[in-house]
Amino acid sequence: MYPCIEINLEKLEDNSRKVNGLLKPLGISVMAVTKGFTAETRIARAILDGGADYIADARIKNLIKLKDLPREKVLLRLPMQSEIHDVVKYCDYSLNSELDTLKLIGKEATSLGIVHKVIIMVDLGDYREGIRYHRVEQFVKEAVEIEGVAIRGFGVNLTCFGGVIPEQTTLQRLVEISETMRVKYDLKIDIVSGGSSSSIYLINEENGIPRGINNLRLGEVILLGKETAFGERFDGLHEDAFILKAQIIELKDKPSVPHGRIGRDAFGNIPHHQDRGIIRRAILALGKQDVDPSGIIPVNPNLSILGASSDHLIVDLSKDKEAYQVGDIISFYVKYGGLLNAMTSPYVEKVYIERDDR
């Protein structure tokens, strides 16, 4: 059935193995971020077989899906107070920046007779989650008094919201904050997490990732073979472990500019059309309910995406007009956003290419 997304488990395991092979000699562990593929077990298992140390996700439902896999689980999004019970029950670690939430976690953990491990997030300029660096000490001073909670690490998020590129000086500041807090409050620090797939480019820089950073939270570089600071392919990884496929349902020569007064489209936007004359237009059975068209790229470089409605994707075939017929399949590479959409959509079939040795 189409549309579908083909998932090559062997390529995913290979990407994971190569990334882990680069980081382990540097003393850096990997949290495999599973949210990009809705924590599908077969994909997670392939990445873990490649050497990832932890399973990490922003959504507790995903971590519950993977509860039987033999790795410690990390909640990446700051916990909602409404989900504290599940956080304590199903997560070994959670990322935190709010004292009130930590107090609830501690109360729940104490009632269950356990101690919950937390990673304190420090904001070093991207201005998403985290405590501003000059307020970390006061936060830790209060947090260490909370029964049922153990501070076991510090982390930083960069790039995801503000687009701030991770740099050695920024990550070195995290190391220094972590070490200062460790000494002053006699903390056992397991994890100093220096960011996501946007930080991995630093291993190819002159001074590399600063000593003391011992963890990265990695999704896109393993899934799509790209570091995210500059969007470049990373060290020969596979970029095609996921391929989205859709079927042509109409093929017509039509003008490139609609005829008539232009108003708002189905999503409330006013479209702008480039006049290319008469073009060969294919309609594919794939729409914005399945994937954001800006998150996919035709495998055939002669094709270009014109736009989409809820259920239809319009593609210009003019540069390769004789190559396709109604019923043919067009393939697309996916960006991270496109992957997230396609894997989340119940209308996109998931097709697995199994590993040769399984």
TrEMBL record:
Q: Which UniProt keywords apply?
A: Isomerase, Pyridoxal phosphate
Q: Known InterPro entries for this protein?
A: Ala_racemase, Ala_racemase_N, PLP-binding_barrel
Q: Which cofactor does it need?
A: pyridoxal 5'-phosphate
Q: Which GO terms describe its molecular function?
A: alanine racemase activity; pyridoxal phosphate binding
What is the superkingdom listed in this entry's lineage? Bacteria
Q: Which residues form the Alanine racemase N-terminal domain?
A: 7-220
Any one GO cellular component localisation term in the record: cytosol
Keyword match Signal: no
**Which PANTHER family did the record assign?**
ALANINE RACEMASE, LYSINE RACEMASE
Protein name per UniProt: Alanine/ornithine racemase family PLP-dependent enzyme
Name the species this protein comes from. Answer: Proteiniclasticum aestuarii
